[in-house]
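DM from R.C. (forwarded with permission)

"hey, sorry to bug you on a friday — could you get me a structure for this? deadline for the figure draft is monday and I only need the backbone to look sensible"
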Amino acid sequence: MLISSITTFLKALVIGASMLIPGLSGGTMAIVLGIYDRLIHSVGTITKKEYFKKNITFLILFLSGACTGIYLFSGVVLSLVEEYEAFCSLFFVGIILGSIPALLKKADIKNVEIKDSIPAISGFSICLLLSIVPSGIFSLSNGLGILNMIIFCIAGILIAVGLVLPGISVSQMLLLLGVLEIVLSAIREKNFALIIPLVLCVGIGILLTTNILEKCLNNHTRTTYLLICGFVIGSAFDAFPDNIKGENILLSTFAFFAGLSLMSLFSWISVKIKTDK
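My reply, with the result:
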């Protein structure tokens, strides 16, 4: 029991940290780490009396780990991206593409058919459309104005969607809204006036989206995961840097394969240490 609890906390910590990476979703990392099905089931059955105590215990442990990961790594990720943008971007692309085998395994694809391209291309196209939306749609400060609170509530729901739905990057959506740095700063500076409404909306968003997604995954597993694969490939395409030059090519290539290897390692560990029940 203790080992299982520690494993859940550590996996949640990694998932929380992954949500800070542009192009990578917490849901995708949850699949790679083998905790996704348990998470969706726990949220979807939280109101059922026979599962309530078990689900609450798991979700509190998971949320504690995820919040710890976000808090511990928000400053690190922001600093690295600012100082080594190209290298970090390639590292992130490697991590994103490294998650695809785990997604295809969940889709249980044995024979590829022509019709399988439709959901994958649809997911990819949605990501491309999002990528052409200008970053920073809203110009916000760290204040407590009504507009700020509304946008932070929207940001909270987007964080929930990014956590529940694999392939949708929380940080990328927050970047488009122009609130990513404000959210990271609020976390780093312990600005609870902004953090509390954000957390409340994350909870509401998770409850709203989990049941719908669970039904899609149960009734249309193959199609749903192929759509998610399209999201993931599209997010990797969008995260690819355009400022790599001569002397940086070798180091950037190394960063890419380092990210790919890291995700493969996570996949291997998740097979050895099962969390799903």
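R.C.: lifesaver. The first helix runs from residue 2 to 18.
me: no worries. The chain has a mean pLDDT of 76.
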